[in-house]
DNA sequence: GGAGTGATACTCGGATATCTGGTGTCCGAGTTTTCGCGG
DNA sequence: CCGCGAAAACTCGGACACCAGATATCCGAGTATCACTCC
């Protein structure tokens, strides 16, 4: 089981975007450069965040991305599901209904016990992820990171963010 | 994120093997036929369970597989980790240390906040899986399954299990 | 000098190659059984 | 009838193809900016 690398990229980008002032935006190119990753590939994941309603995208020059709603209302689970999909990791293929001892399908009423256990475990995982908001994550970074990184990032943000036109 | 299909196979096989009497064994061929899956591919996963110390394998004619320890001492987590590996699903690549605002590596003391959150969520997932033992899963199947399936499986087991030689 | 208009530069978005890891298969090593033979 | 031995059959174990999904890239659609021209 492996989580898409894009989840990490998207989460880090979300924290950076959460640091924008007001309704300013930041272009994908800048986000890619900041994290040292491929720009074109990062755009793929940023679009997924837009589709999920986490980011808003503004086209054209002076365009870019910004949060679609307050950072306190965006959970880590939202980001993971936006990029990695909402499908459960475990997918029961009902192999209990195959083989020599199987009976007609309607006899298998409740879901397979293994499936139930796996899905409840995933529910615990999702609940844990939902306990972290973008705001809390950003606050954690702000308090633990090296002061030079913080000031450097703020300066870099000021240089790359695009003020809102409204 | 997707869990290997072999996890489902392994878990179902473990429940069947848990239903053997005493130290009897059952060959992989029979397990494959019972579940209607590829025999050669299933062997790959059964071997993983053997390597992990969950199953014991007996070679030669009248050989097969049996549990290496009591069913109450085998958790769903053991099976998942045996087949899918113990590596966490989320693997931090430290992209925070890349890009223009990065400083020397030793300045990044604690783990990345995102990584911490993801790993703690996975810990919750593992804990939930560890709460299900093979014994409890088998008991659940025994109480909820169709009576015809139960009797059919018992009959099938009696026909295919290999009594211990000791 | 100011307004209008066209070209321009920059942005995001979707379609297209490449590559790693899971999926599936085959053949070989090892062991117990079994049959045949000799005593 | 009993013991011995070799062949055989069946088991698991590791090495080899195949394929789907993630990874990575390029080109096209759209829009605010900017410069130029005309009034």
What does this structure look like?
2 copies of one chain form a homodimer. Chain A is mainly α. The first copy, chain A, is 52% helix and 5% strand. Chain A is built from 7 helices and 2 strands, in the order αααββαααα. The first copy, chain A, has helices spanning 5-18, 28-35, 39-51, 76-84, 113-130, 134-144, 147-160; strands at 55-58, 64-67. The model of chain A has no long low-confidence stretch (mean pLDDT 93). At the A-B interface, helix 1, helix 2, helix 5, helix 6 and helix 7 of A face helix 1, helix 2, helix 5, helix 6 and helix 7 of B. The structure holds a DNA duplex (39 and 39 nucleotides).
Stretches of chain A where pLDDT is under 50 for at least 5 consecutive residues are none
Principal-axis shape of chain A: elongated
Note the total helix count of chain A: 7
How far the N terminus sits from the C terminus of chain A, by CA atoms, comes to 45 Å
Please state the CA-atom Rg of chain A, rounded to the nearest Å.
Answer: 21 Å
Q: Give the ordered list of helices and strands of chain A.
A: HHHEEHHHH
Q: How many individual β-strands of chain A?
A: 2
Q: Beta-sheet strand percentage of chain A?
A: under 5%
């Amino acid at each position: 089981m492996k989580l898409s690398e894009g989840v990490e990229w998207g989460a880090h980008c979300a924290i950076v975007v959460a640091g924008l002032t007001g309704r300013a935006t930041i272009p994908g190119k800048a986000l890619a450069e900041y994290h040292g990753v491929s720009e074109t590939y990062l755009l793929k994941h940023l679009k997924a965040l837009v589709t999920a309603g986490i980011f808003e995208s503004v086209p054209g020059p002076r365009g870019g991305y910004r949060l679609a709603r307050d950072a306190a209302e965006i959970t880590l689970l939202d980001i993971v599901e936006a990029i990695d999909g909402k499908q459960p990791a475990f997918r029961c293929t009902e192999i209990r209904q195959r083989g020599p001892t199987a009976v007609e399908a309607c006899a298998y009423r409740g879901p397979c016990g293994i499936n139930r256990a796996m899905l409840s475990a995933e529910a615990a995982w999702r609940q844990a992820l939902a306990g972290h908001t973008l705001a809390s994550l950003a606050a954690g970074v702000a308090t633990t990171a090296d002061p030079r990184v913080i000031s450097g990032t703020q300066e870099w943000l000021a240089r790359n963010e695009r003020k809102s036109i409204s």
